[in-house]
Amino acid sequence: MTWADKLNEQIVRCRLCPRLVAHRERVVREKKREFRDWDYWGRAVPSLGRADARLLIIGLAPAAHGANRTGRMFTGDSSGQWLFRALHKAGFASQPTWQRRDDGLKLIDCYITAVCHCAPPENKPLPGEIENCAGYLQEELQRLTKCEVVIALGKIAFDHYLKSLKRMGVSLPKPLPRFAHNTVHELGSGLTVLVSSYHPSRQNTNTGKLTEAMFDAVFATAKEILRS
Question: Over the Cα atoms of the chain, what is R_g?
């Protein structure tokens, strides 16, 4: 069993946030009609991927009828459709689509986590709830020793990645990097390269703020950094 397996066992058992526990379990009882035949996961969602990955992706939180249903990070909703299509195109996933936890989907040189591991009401975790998950992200950052590139999906993930580094005693550049789509942030010698991206939420994709070409460019950037 790898460190990632052990950490994921802790994550799945987590009940630190009463509001999130109540919400994720209520969703299990009140399934969407289109998913009425599903056995919803309804627990904290573990991270996904390889413990020796060179690419780390940080998202915000599972969706109520997405990963809270499937039990697999970033699957089950439209954001996941965007992400895995882009990952497959860039060579970081074995297939562009997912169905169920046993569908054979594998990540390649990639690890996916989130700042919050439980589905929050209205997709908005409270600061204290994110804080309760902070230790999991920090352990992942310490353990992913092969990681060279981090993609932060959205400003919350971006900010909390930097916050985690500061807590770990990492000396960051001043002023701190500013969030912008498909922007490369060199944090210093020996540190991972941070790439910021808009989150593939419906709010961004349905309005055209984020297009497929824009999202593909983020993973092309990451791939080029790893190549060099």
Answer: 17
